[in-house]
Specification:
The structure is a homodimer. By secondary structure, chain A is an alpha/beta fold. Chain A folds into two domains: about 260 residues, Queuine tRNA-ribosyltransferase-like (TIM Barrel, Alpha-Beta Barrel); about 90 residues, no CATH class. Chain A has an eight-stranded parallel beta barrel with strand order 4-5-6-10-11-12-13-14, surrounded by five helices. In chain A, strands 1-2-3 form a three-stranded antiparallel beta sheet. In chain A, α6 packs across α7. Chain A starts with a strand and ends with a helix. The relative contact order of chain A is 0.13. The model of chain A has no long low-confidence stretch (mean pLDDT about 95). Chains A and B meet through α13 and α14 of A and α13 and α14 of B.
Chain lengths: ~375, ~375
């Protein structure tokens, strides 16, 4: 039986169900990022209260601290962080290339220095799979090289081909029956390389197809263009995961193209920096205009932060560096994201995607102007 | 009708009920410190879940940020911070003397520099009362000078006499009917000055008697000695509040002497520094011995942190500077404090105080050795 069921399409937007070892996830879905075995500032109870069914964990960080052996000994990542629902782990590839000083990239894998203490580490398809299996991840990502932006055609080709060889090795090494395995499409900003990558991945028949190597510094318009070009070529019967994306607009644009899964630090990181997503755009809570503002962050939001607290109070907390600022702002932003995706799912189920999409884009343009 | 009802005594330990405009508080009671309109790292829901019925707010900090006019305009401190239960505010006196550069101390009041930006401020009995009334505090503290330690007899006398004159002015200025008014006993480490202070306060008949000027740097034994000397002279029909105290042992010793109310930053501050109170002493979670420790902070604790998380996970969060570390550690420590006080209340109600006290002191000695 397949882990993914595509239940409804409305134009290209898709509503489906993904079954993991820790529950069923409705798609489209947004996965909060729990880098170091915690979604920053949140408890697992709050994540469940908001409605999340799956979160993301970072292989790179957990490998370095506390180490997958420790997590495994303590019963796996779910038990370690007390999270009973789904966990997807990335492969560590992206962080090796973005956070570490690379020592040596070979066919075998990549030698790098820990960004914590400079110690020498090594990741390969096999070690990445072993780490993710030790963590007990529900969805294990292939180990890949994230092609930087900009990259020439030849660079992108070479990088993609390495990632495809690594994908095959990853698939062979991922022997944990309870876990799903996702491949990652690479190929830079070149459509034909992306299609080649998809075809190569099809051969190893992963449980899901992720698009990697986007949102790595390219203009937003180019990212949207690439998503629109790549997504139609992904197998319809598998979940489509756009890695590391994005803003509310990015997400709605990608759902419109047929993407099912998202993760991003934007809602949590922005929250800690005092920026709240609202139905009328971003509210930067540090601004003096909110000093005596008794209204909630977003009058159209039903979250407990908007029910209980004024902008004036939230500004006061932020200005004073209070932990409660990060907590309340993060809760609101995650609620906003989950609520947005829930509305997307409803629009698709009701076959009213186009109306929803047009309305959202119009409102988005308005809040910019 | 009196706001305080002494219901039961077991030796000198007292069980009572204090009625405020925001609910009834059983005593002995511990009040978490919510300096800047938030008990650091906690939501109000969590404070209620733990069982707290009253918290403390700091007049000095709230006067400087966001200012009592802002809080008043937004509906008072309860509404501002979304806390429906009791609030006691200190007078600001202690912080003026501990945090600020004092410019000038006169009969009228004290001119000082804000520790935030160096701006010139002035507090007097009348301004302190006005601020606390604007905040909408349930229990308003007299404005006093906190006598430093050490102080000579003459210094302590002079300081106490000033505080007593200020107490009278405070009482006259505190005209808010919904609020209770507490006087503060001063007099340094001199018993006869303390008795003189009590007698002067009796004349203005406050709703409660606080002991100030302890836990200001003197040896713990001296503090305990002073509490044992002062408390028996406080009027039996009024609540007795020992300000800024203390450790679990300090609190139990003070309850034994007849104290009813406590506030202290120890459980919250220690939590953020990685120190947990447990039934077998303090657990410093940063220690390497906990790296793979699957046991909870305190196997004898029923709080949700001890039910859900291992020492290994809590250590991981602390080492990685995760906000969740402060959250979980603070929750546990506040639960520990509230639970300790609840046990004290039960022992008094059951007239088994002496047994409880002796057992607690014996266990306390053991965990030290």
């Amino acid at each position: 039986m397949s882990s993914f069921e595509l239940i409804k399409k409305s134009q290209s937007a898709r509503y489906g169900k993904l079954t993991t070892a820790h529950g069923v996830v409705e798609t489209p879905v947004f996965m909060p990022v729990g880098t170091k075995a915690t979604v920053k500032a949140m408890t697992v109870e709050e994540l469940e209260e908001i409605g999340f069914k799956i979160i993301l964990g970072n292989t790179y960080h957990l490998h370095l601290r506390p180490g997958e052996e420790v997590v495994k000994k303590l019963g796996g990542l779910h038990k370690f962080m007390n999270w009973p629902k789904g966990i997807l782990t990335d492969s560590g590839g992206y962080q090796v290339f973005s956070l570490s000083k690379i020592r040596k990239l070979t066919e075998e894998g990549v030698e790098f220095q820990s960004h914590y203490d400079g110690s020498k580490c090594f990741l390969s398809p096999e070690t990445s799979m072993q780490i993710q299996m030790d963590l007990g991840s529900d969805i294990i990502m292939a180990f890949d090289e994230c092609t930087p932006y900009p990259a020439s055609f030849d660079e992108a080709l070479k990088s993609m081909e390495l990632s495809m060889r690594w994908a095959k090795r990853s698939k062979l090494a991922m022997i944990r029956k309870e876990s799903l395995f996702f491949g990652i499409v690479q190929g830079g900003m070149f459509e034909d390389l992306r299609l080649k990558s998809i075809n190569e991945l099809k051969e190893i028949n992963p449980d899901g197809f992720a698009i990697g190597g986007l949102s790595v510094g390219e203009p937003i318009e180019l990212m949207h263009e690439m998503v629109n070009k790549i997504t139609p070529h992904l197998p319809e019967d598998k979940p489509h995961y756009l890695m590391g994306v994005g803003t509310p607009l990015d997400i709605v644009v990608a759902i419109n193209a047929g993407i099912d899964m998202f993760d991003c630090v934007i809602p949590t990181r922005n929250a800690r920096n005092g920026n709240a997503f609202t139905s009328t755009g971003i509210v930067s809570i540090k601004q003096a205009q909110y000093t005596q503002d008794s209204s909630p962050l977003d009058p159209n939001c039903g979250c407990k932060v908007c029910k209980g607290y004024s902008r004036a109070y939230l500004r006061h907390l932020y200005i004073n560096n209070e932990i409660l600022s990060s907590r309340l702002m993060t809760y609101h932003n995650l609620y906003f994201y989950n609520n947005l995706i829930e509305k997307c799912r409803q629009a698709i189920k009701a076959d009213q995607w186009t109306e929803f999409f047009n309305k959202f884009c119009a409102a988005s343009n308005q809040s910019k102007s």
